[in-house]
Amino acid sequence: MTRTTIALGGTGAIGAEVARHLAGRLREHYELTAVTARRADRAQDLLAGLGLNAPVVAPHELAEHADIVVECAPAPVFRQIAEPAVERGRLLVPLSAAALLDSWDLVRRAELTGACVHVPTGAFLGLDAVQAAALGGVRSVRLITRKPVAGLRTAPWFTHHDVDPDSLTEAVRLFHGSPREAARDFPANVNVAVALSLAGIGPDRTEMELWADPAARTNTHRVLVDSDAAQLDFSISGTPSGNPATGLLTPLSVVALLQKLAASLRIGT
Predict the structure, then answer these.
(1) Which of 20, 86, 111, 178 is deepest in the core (most CB within 10 A)?
(2) What order do you get walking across the sheet with 231-238 strand by strand?
């Protein structure tokens, strides 16, 4: 059976976990054919340890090597990975949903090149219900996110407001507004909010709050949707990965997406 080729744009907390599954349960259906990494030596050590053999290439070269490109890199590298994938008509799976907002022309371009941009659920499971509700009348979508300080420490917000994150001794609401606005000061922390907004009523109408909580040990997201079809109120508490800004659920959502693409039975919309 011919396997689908796949490239990983990043081998950090997300990419490394996806690579482990490509070496295991996904190996029957997918062949890893390229990765990109800031440290090529570390990436090669990771792949060798998993029994995988793929070259480390520049971000803009990933789409030359694979049918599916999974973007799991820092936001500044997003376009270098995404644009060639769209131009070559690939399936692009972007984890940096916040960066996608600033590159929306790529979504329009995909309509012409035959590419597909498939945003995975990431740390937010429940997009199916929100998407279904959005087909009817939706009055409001609200997200309240609470994170440990460690997961927010590198956010530009602290520099812009001259606040030392380590000085926080109690929970503080850092932001209240739309996901589009939040993406400017928290580019690595609002991918869940952006994915929710794209599934629902958009990045400008969705309301979100972002809290830094020194006592928190997990990333929690509470979602409230007021719609004609249903009143939704649910919470997710995700365990942080080796990267405190990323939950363990995020790479597993990519694995679940890849499994669904290859399956003869698919569950969920």
Answers:
(1) 86
(2) 172-177, 207-212, 138-147, 219-227, 231-238
Beta bridge partners of 7: 34, 69
Instruction: Express each pLDDT in 118-128 by its tens digit.
Output: 998 877 767 88
Helices (H), the chain: 13-22, 40-50, 78-87, 97-101, 105-113, 127-134, 156-160, 179-185, 191-199, 249-262
Is residue 60 among the annotated active site residues?
no
Catalytic residue chosen out of the listed positions 29, 60, 118, 221 = 221
Residues of the chain with pLDDT under 50: none
Q: What pLDDT sits at residue 244?
A: 64
> pLDDT digit string (tens) for 102-157?
999 999 999 999 999 999 887 776 788 899 999 988 999 999 999 999 889 989 99
CATH topology of domain 127-238: Dihydrodipicolinate Reductase; domain 2 (3.30.360)
> What is residue 135's three-state secondary structure?
coil
Here the tokens at position 251 are: 């790479």
Which residues are 4's β-sheet partners? 30
Domain with CATH 3.30.360.10 in the chain: 127-238
